[in-house]
Amino acid sequence: MPPSVSELKRRLEQHGLEDNRKAQKLLTQATNPYLDREQRWRARIALKQLIEERRRYPFDSVVPKNSYLDDPVLLGTTQKQGKLYTLKEDDLNQHTLFIGQTGSGKSTAFRNIMTQISTPYWAFDRKQDYRHLIQEHDDLLVLPWSELKFNPLKPPEGVAPMKWVQVFTEIFSHATSLLSGSKNYLLSAVIELYKEYNLFKDNTHPYPALQDLHQLITGQGVNYTRKKSNYLDTVANRLEPLTLVTGHIFNCSKGYPIEDLMQRKVVFEFDGLNRDIQRFLQEILFAYVYEYQFAQGNRSGDLELLIFVDEAKQTFSVYLERQDASGIPEIDDLTARARQFGIGLVAADQEATKLTDSLKANTKTKVLLPVGDQKQFNEITESIDLTSLQEKYAQDLDTGEAIIKHGNKDPVPVDLQNHETGTVTEEELIEHQRQKWQNLPFKHRKDPSFSSSETIDTDSQVGSDQLETGESAESVQIEISDEAESLLEDIAENPLRFVTERYEDLSLSYYKGNEAKKELVDKELISEETVGSGQSQGTMFDLTEKARRYLEEQDVNVQWKGRGSVRHLYWQDQIKELLEETGWDAYIEKLNADVYGIQDGNEIAVEVALGVNDREIDHIEDHLETGWRTVVAARNHSVKKGLKRKLGESNVDESKIRLTTVQDLDQEHLRPE
């Protein structure tokens, strides 16, 4: 017996057919009192059959509409209707993500796209999956890492040396998991090296190599006066594998011309390298391309280079993204902005949970292949917004089958286009590529002539007193009450809280809160700071270096994103919010700026000046060299007056900066010119 009308309505909603035209027409017939009983009966039976078909195949299979004029890329055919599922080649500019277990068809899908697109592409290959395409594309350049020449310390064409110093430092620190103290030391060392090569005045050959940076840091020919050798040791240890294992790659003044390689189809083979080196090479090449495109003003939005990355979690790691001590990964920001400059990304991995939220949020097309692990399956099905019936269907996908979600369109099951390739031996690869390798120009490295009188004093670098986890050999033995322990941990985890709010959240009375505070002050673990202005003024707490070491030993994560006192951090946070309200994408401690903003290709650096010192002038000069708009927010009018006097004594063009106070800073100071 056919189900009742109410039951049919419930099932239609359950199977997502409440808006289906055919279903609604049948439902109208089933409930129309002017039709005879047999007609209504047949309509109910037809509805039941439609619902059963939907249960077995809970998709609409609406495919993107593309013409041959759009340079369509065929991904496969829909499983039920057999329609061609294509994307416009320019759609790939908005990034694509494949998720599937080993053997599910990710590499095959990559090869399928590579062989169809006319746009140049780079493939970062960890498993020698794509060298075989030379059998189909004679112009394909395959570069095993043993044949690569690249100097990451040479700025891209048109990029100011000071800006590239900062980008290089961010990328290297992210790839090798350096924290803020060592990152600041590395930054100062690279700046010193650039000065030795006179690059800030004459950005031409010769350029320093990583070997020169390693020599400078380890003191071969350079004297050092610094109190904390742990930063030097940490950075030197991260550089050493690069100079030993892959030294031949970086042992050059100019590597292969990246600008020319961007016009070619290139496979970079990184198999056999450790993961830190692979990650560094991938990220620095990505950053090089982005900064070059940015400097050239290539923002047409049309796809100009497509980058393929398998095992994407090695580069787009959620653990590194959430590691507050190292800041927001530069690679995340580049991915979000790359599409403006014609750089598309096709990424793949087995484990969606280990990928950055930024990567998942910034991929317009997502492709779900067979996934065996339930946790990984749940992560990607949530990302592409599958219904419960669609999830059940997706659990039975076989190799070469996928569910594709493109933009805001409904997901569609697709049999992916297969692409079989023959095998290319090492000897065949060398024979085919030898002439191509020999035709790639590069310039040899020239040894520097370091001055023995030069020193690097990283104790003067802001943030150098912040020790990294595991870098302090001195253990901190402290006994404090439970209330004081809770208060200290809360300060570490939530630095920007006023005292009253902090006590309330910890359920501490004013008396008990003050007693805990006094205990921490007496133990030299915190200090008090008056922060803010006007009605927003109040007391916050600063952690001492002693407290940081103690908290690290207790495995407490210190959520301290700034590089100075809590007063400095407070104003950084306030300015970041103000920049965002003015339309900027804003970041604290980005590219060596207190607060960095980017909006439609415009860049701004805002410095928080709590005092009058030469370091503030140095920061201003550095930002002006990058061509950024520079705003200085002084702590008060007295500091502003002192900075204005120092600027008058320096070589800084005061017309190129905006000098104000943190209290007077408003959106008018920050609007793009």
Automatic annotation (TrEMBL):
GO terms for molecular function: ATP binding. Transmembrane segments: none annotated. It comes from the Archaea. Residues 449-475 have a biased composition (Polar residues). The keyword Nucleotide-binding applies. Gene3D superfamilies: P-loop containing nucleotide triphosphate hydrolases. Keywords: ATP-binding, Nucleotide-binding. InterPro entries: P-loop_NTPase, T4SS_component. Signal peptide: none annotated. Residues 435-476 are annotated as: Disordered. This is Putative ATP-binding protein. It comes from Natrinema altunense (strain JCM 12890 / CGMCC 1.3731 / AJ2).
